[in-house]
Design goal:
444 residues, alpha+beta, Outer membrane efflux proteins (OEP), two-stranded parallel ribbon, 63% helix, 14% strand, elongated
């Protein structure tokens, strides 16, 4: 019976029926990717980056503009002629004009092409940033989901503790009724039962809070009922026996932050090239066609057309070292990007190593705690037998029951720690939420 009770505690039995809001972990992650505000913000950033690519491309393409005007001369303009002619009025009362202009950049000092490259790099970085946000959200859901599973396990542990205290009270009451137990023993049994009930109340409150955290991690509205339907059970991570070098190599190929580092360096170098474009002239091909008309009537009978085409060159010859300063700043930013990339890579490698060590530590704790639970359970059984035979005190029985509760709690917590270490390692590798075939890992 004791082994059955322990199994019930550890694998989360059907005591918690599956409600309408029950979710598996994949379902919870899928909902989070659909509803979480961070995901929507990342999508907006991606749309903005796509718009920036379109805008940078537009700088390289031709542009066409139109303008129209109408003037009514309240007093006609004049020009001055030599005497005796004097002032001569020109023009008519009504003046109309319409102009169409076209401009095509021929050379922008590499600013146009470089700007387009920077926008494309920004789009690639936005895509990687969106992937990173998805992984952050998945990790948050896993933390909250597994926390909700742990809370349910601890509720069951405290329920078993209350059941043990009630059973001990019944046993002491029976012995007291036949004169084999003292009133002090009976009082201790009653106090023990009273002491276990607040812990159960706290565990149930924590379970409700854990569900609220899960709802928040998914991004659902307040009042939406969610509850995990999976079980908190031991398992073996597929990364348990993978070497550190292989894990780092996997992260290099999949973690968004590492994939973004070359783009970060490339953008910084393009920034240098963009700043140097100030040294070069801008060359534009321009064309214009105009229609003009003047008349005493509101609408003239005829319009005069003119057209022109040409090339315009604009070149800043001296700007008081402003361009030079911009280039120097861009060069410093490029060197900083390279140094930052190296630091980020080192930090990720350390993060992977730490997560791997946590995984091994949690695995060792599970093995140790499982043995401790069995020993504590056997000690409780012997304490009950000894108390029935009069060779042990009620305090010994209470202590044995307390140890069982503590070891069961520690065991459930060690399983939770292993789940978290596994999720943290997958996040460090950049493969959280991916199937083994997606990243080339086929063993579990």
């Amino acid at each position: 019976m004791k082994r059955l009770m322990l199994a019930l505690v550890l694998i989360l039995p059907a005591t918690y029926s599956t409600p309408a809001g029950a979710l598996t972990l994949p379902e919870a992650e899928s909902l989070a990717l659909e509803h979480h505000r961070r995901i929507r913000l990342a999508e907006q950033d991606l749309q903005r980056a796509q718009a920036e690519v379109t805008g940078s491309r537009a700088r390289l393409m031709p542009s066409v503009s139109a303008s129209a005007g109408y003037n009514r001369n309240l007093e006609r303009p004049v020009f001055f002629a030599p005497p005796p002619m004097g002032q001569i009025e020109i023009g008519e009362v009504n003046e109309h004009s319409l102009t169409l202009s076209a401009t095509q950049p021929l050379f922008l000092g590499y600013a146009g092409v470089t700007g387009y490259r920077l926008a494309q790099t920004g789009l690639e970085r936005a895509e990687l940033s969106a992937a990173q946000t998805q992984q952050d959200v998945r990790l948050g859901v896993r933390q909250a989901y597994t926390g909700a599973l742990l809370a349910r396990s601890l509720v069951l542990v405290q329920q078993e503790a209350v059941a043990q205290a009630e059973s001990s009270l019944v046993q002491v009451q029976r012995l007291y009724d036949v004169g084999q137990a003292s009133g002090f023993d009976l009082l201790q049994a009653e106090v023990q039962l009273a002491n276990t009930r607040p812990a159960l109340v706290s565990a149930e409150s924590e379970r409700r809070l854990a569900d609220a955290r899960l709802r928040s991690a998914i991004g659902l509205d307040t009042g939406t009922r969610v509850e995990p339907s999976d079980t908190l059970a031991p398992f073996t991570s597929r990364w348990a026996d993978v070497s550190l070098d292989n894990l780092i190599d996997l992260a290099t190929r999949h973690r968004p932050e590492l994939l973004e580092l070359p783009l970060q360096v490339r953008a910084a170098r393009d920034g240098v090239r963009l700043s140097r474009s100030a040294y070069y002239p801008d060359v534009m091909l321009m064309g214009r066609i105009s229609w003009q008309g003047q008349s005493e009537k509101l609408v003239p009978d005829d319009f005069a057309r003119s057209a022109a085409a040409g090339v315009q060159l604009a070149w800043t010859l001296w700007d008081s070292w402003g361009s030079q300063s911009g280039v120097q700043q861009a060069q410093v930013a490029a060197r900083q990007a390279e140094l930052s990339a190296a630091m980020i890579r080192e930090g990720v490698e350390l993060e992977i190593e730490a997560a791997r060590e946590k995984l091994h530590e949690a695995a060792a704790n599970i093995s140790s705690q499982a043995t401790t639970v069995e020993q504590a359970e056997e000690a409780l059984r012997l304490a009950r037998v000894r108390y029935d035979n009069g060779t042990s005190t009620q305090l010994d029985l209470i202590n044995a029951q307390f140890v069982v509760t503590q070891t069961q709690t520690a065991y459930a917590s060690s399983i939770y720690a292993y789940h978290m270490a596994h999720a943290t390692l997958e996040k460090a590798l950049g493969v959280i939420g991916q199937s083994p075939t997606e990243h080339g890992e086929t063993t579990r």
